[in-house]
Amino acid sequence: MPSDPKTPSKQIIPKSPSDGWQQRITIPTILAGIAGGLFGLVSKSRRPLAVSYAANLAIVTGCYCGARELARDARASEPDDLINSVIGGVASGGLLGKLQGGQLSAIRYAVIFATVGTAFDFTTLELRPYLRNIQNSVQEMSLDPSSWSLPEWSPIQILDEEALAAKRAREQQLYEQRRFGTMNKEKS
């Protein structure tokens, strides 16, 4: 077969949307466990509930994220598709609600999980460009330390060569005055 001059000889394999599914499940689950534990620590009864809150929020988040990823894989869609969030919320809420208290709880939990999960995913999608902008600006600052500057009102000032030489001259003059003053006191 003759090769077409318009197509490159190497085929570019597109990145699969299923790449990174572990991160899309484990990172929110761990963060939810930490948030639940912190909430339990600041609640009135403190210690006994902290572990319970952490475990429950981690389980709920793990189920939701797993169902969302399963829906994404079944639909062959992108990870940022909000329909996956709705389907994942309905599925995980229905399952956990059924385990918790029957058919009525399953419906109630399905609606709550779909609403809260989709709202949370929508919020993270909307905030992602701002967070990336902040991350990029912090990375630029860390790469170029000269971009760090203190405000004018700061008592800490970075001196250039002339100002540093003038400061050293003033310090030397004050030192000489003190030394000369102590010598005069010793003589008298």
From TrEMBL:
Q: Does the keyword Secreted apply?
A: no
Could you tell me where this protein is found in the cell? Answer: Membrane
Q: Which GO terms describe its cellular component?
A: TIM22 mitochondrial import inner membrane insertion complex
Q: Which UniProt keywords apply?
A: Membrane, Transmembrane, Transmembrane helix
Topological category with respect to the lipid bilayer: Multi-pass membrane protein
Where composition is biased (Polar residues), the residues are: 1-10
Entry-linked PANTHER family:
MITOCHONDRIAL IMPORT INNER MEMBRANE TRANSLOCASE SUBUNIT TIM22, OS04G0376100 PROTEIN
Identification of the protein by name:
Uncharacterized protein
